[in-house]
Inverse folding.
């Protein structure tokens, strides 16, 4: 009985309206984002889709390959354009990926059956890399189509040669596939998967760093304001002959300095991490087809971020920090006890979590317009995506993000200053159902 | 000329009229106390005088400066000690005094002067070199009170100056207030719901309830007026008669 009485009291303390609202908002937000992304997932993970094929051999065999692809559920878009510059070829064909069946493909495929147990003919796969998200890689159907072509050639090869089951097993690479990746109008002979993997391994730190900074900065300022409010040191300070803007400015500047030091330290560490990663030669000469390192290839494709790129990433990180500071000033002002101080971090945490997971898994531009707008409305999204935007030359999106962040900062600051320079700093509260109690306490 | 002149101060919150046309004055070296139960409007009135919140109507003049038009000059003339106020726990007592002195002082010499004065008054000795987080409630209150008077303000506003303190600490603080008013002519505006304490320390009182100032006068005079043995009885009779 006594235990139940104690348990009831503890539950009453722990379960409050703020907590329930926080949970409902979190679940609602995550579910709606999840629903909006389910269509994207379905499209991306389906095994078939549209493939663009340039059949330069144009024989019965190659036509039968295309028919087989269509029978397998692929929608084949035939491309007639030609250009030795692969980037321009994709542009003139108006597609993001292309399979080129070269002239002489049929002869070589069928003739090679008379020689050793390998096929020397090759397909060329050209892919325009616009994002490095996991889902973006999955949504490209070119590789799947190339595998089917490979199977068809292998089958034809076996039929021609009359190979036994044992001999079939010895044919490991029936088709040579040359992969070309196009980025920002530049092309290089490298697999998009290798590039994506490399960029993902480099870029995975950015969302983590941004997430830590967002949480750290917000916690710092909410705690600073709420402690001053709860301990009434704020009243003492604001009754001194000093302007409220000075008090607010000093708090903001101090927190910004600490946050900038943090951001700078993280970025220096990150730059070093990327440098050591890129400087090492990657053992992929057979894929690259030369002694080039990934570093060289990334430089060639304009994917290597220099100091200026890091400054731009740092700039959005700084904007993220100052937005957090301004928003946290407002949230901190809403606090009137230690319990509400802890829950005040929740809105910022949710807003940081959504773009964190979305940018790690999906290409935001692949989302539906509504979902995309919602995700981009979260100012942190732009920082999570800053590296990708700079790498892939989406500079309009980068500058828009920066301008949006600046605008949001101004709005948050406006409200923060309004609260600080009015009675609201002492009277505002988010203690649902307890406003009366709060008011009477401050009477 | 009074150090503080409160003229029909009112504060309307959304649904509550927390202060209703409150008027009184405090002379130089006088200890004036606003007494009333919790929620009577004491803190709201004090916060308006301290320029922390803006009045809905009315004005108050502190050392010749209006709280409406010259709030910074008002703040330079007063110090305010909120009810149950704390101090920065990670600072040492000495660092806190120095920091707060810096808010009022015009130069380094003044900072040193204010700090030295507060160090002497609070009587915390070597404990001033320790972090405030390790202080008892009584020690913090002494530190804050010495902080409040170290700048020799024209008016020191103390909200519930001895709330939560034990008898010995409360007595010391009351003595400190009386001493400063007598020797340095510091004016005090106190608020308290502890009427026996106020009877001991203050020269005049204002009885406030429901946001209205119901009675103002010297303690002996109002005790006589209401035929009461102490301030608590005065309060009861004032509230019942209005």
């Amino acid at each position: 009985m006594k235990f139940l009485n104690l348990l009831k009291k503890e539950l009453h303390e722990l379960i409050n309206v703020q907590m329930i609202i926080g949970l409902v908002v979190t679940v609602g937000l995550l579910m709606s984002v999840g629903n909006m992304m389910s269509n994207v997932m379905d499209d991306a993970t389906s095994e078939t889709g549209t493939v663009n094929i340039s059949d330069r051999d144009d024989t019965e065999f190659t036509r039968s390959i295309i028919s087989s692809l269509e029978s397998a559920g692929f929608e084949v878009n035939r491309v007639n354009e030609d250009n030795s510059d692969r980037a321009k070829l994709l542009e003139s064909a108006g597609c993001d990926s292309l399979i080129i069946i070269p002239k002489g493909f049929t002869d070589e495929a069928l003739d090679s059956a008379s020689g050793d147990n390998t096929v020397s003919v090759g397909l060329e796969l050209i892919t325009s890399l616009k994002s490095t998200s996991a889902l973006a890689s999955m949504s490209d159907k070119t590789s799947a189509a190339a595998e089917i072509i490979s199977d068809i050639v292998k089958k034809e090869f076996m039929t021609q040669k009359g190979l036994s089951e044992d001999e079939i097993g010895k044919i490991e690479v029936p088709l040579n596939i040359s992969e070309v990746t196009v980025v920002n109008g530049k092309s290089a002979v490298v697999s998009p998967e290798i590039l994506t993997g490399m960029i993902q391994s480099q870029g995975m730190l950015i969302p983590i760093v941004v997430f830590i900074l967002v949480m750290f900065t917000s916690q710092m300022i909410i705690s600073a304001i709420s402690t001053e409010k709860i301990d009434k040191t704020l009243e003492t300070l604001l009754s001194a002959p000093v302007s409220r803007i000075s008090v607010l400015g000093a708090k903001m500047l101090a927190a910004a300095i600490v946050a900038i030091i943090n951001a700078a330290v993280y970025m220096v560490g990150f730059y070093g991490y990327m440098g050591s990663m890129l400087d090492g030669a990657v053992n992929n000469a057979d894929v690259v087809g030369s002694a080039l390192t990934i570093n060289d290839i990334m430089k060639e494709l304009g994917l290597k971020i220099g100091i200026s790129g890091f400054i731009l990433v740092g700039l959005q990180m700084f904007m993220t920090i100052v937005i957090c500071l301004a928003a946290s000033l407002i949230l901190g002002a809403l606090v009137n006890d230690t319990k509400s101080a802890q829950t005040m971090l929740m809105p910022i945490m949710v807003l940081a979590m959504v773009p964190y997971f979305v940018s790690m898994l999906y290409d935001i531009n692949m989302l539906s317009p509504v979902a995309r707008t919602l995700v981009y409305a979260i100012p942190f999204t732009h920082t999570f995506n800053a590296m990708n935007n700079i790498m892939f030359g989406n500079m309009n999106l980068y500058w828009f993000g920066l301008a949006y962040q600046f605008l949001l900062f101004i709005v948050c600051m406006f409200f923060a200053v309004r609260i600080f320079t009015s009675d609201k700093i002492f009277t505002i509260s988010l203690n649902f159902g307890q406003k009366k109690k709060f008011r009477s306490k401050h009477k | 000329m009074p150090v503080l002149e409160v003229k029909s101060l009112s504060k309307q919150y959304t649904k509550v009229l927390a202060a209703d046309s409150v008027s009184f004055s405090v002379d130089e070296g006088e200890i004036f106390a606003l007494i009333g139960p919790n929620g009577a409007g004491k803190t709201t009135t004090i916060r308006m005088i301290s320029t922390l919140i803006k009045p809905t109507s009315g004005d108050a003049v502190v050392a010749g400066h209006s709280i409406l038009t010259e709030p910074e000059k008002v703040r330079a003339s007063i110090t305010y000690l909120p009810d149950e106020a704390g101090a920065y726990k990670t600072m040492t007592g000495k660092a806190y005094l120095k920091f707060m002195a810096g808010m009022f002082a015009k130069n380094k010499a003044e900072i040193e002067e204010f700090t030295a004065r507060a160090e002497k008054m609070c009587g915390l000795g070597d404990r001033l070199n320790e972090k405030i987080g390790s202080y008892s409630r009584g020690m913090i209150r002494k530190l804050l009170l010495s902080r409040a008077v170290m700048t020799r303000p024209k008016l020191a506003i103390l909200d519930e100056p001895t709330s939560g303190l034990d008898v010995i600490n409360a007595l010391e603080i009351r003595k400190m207030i009386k001493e400063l008013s007598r020797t340095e002519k510091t004016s005090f505006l106190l608020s308290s719901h502890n009427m026996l304490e106020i009877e001991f320390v203050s020269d005049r009182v204002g009885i406030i309830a429901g946001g209205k100032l119901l009675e103002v006068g010297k303690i002996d005079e109002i005790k006589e007026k209401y035929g009461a043995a102490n301030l608590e009885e005065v309060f009861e009779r004032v509230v019942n008669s209005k």
Remarks:
- The two ends of chain B are 31 Å apart (CA to CA).
- Chain B has nine helices and ten strands.
- The domain at 4-41+52-230 of chain B is CATH 3.40.50.300 (Rossmann fold).
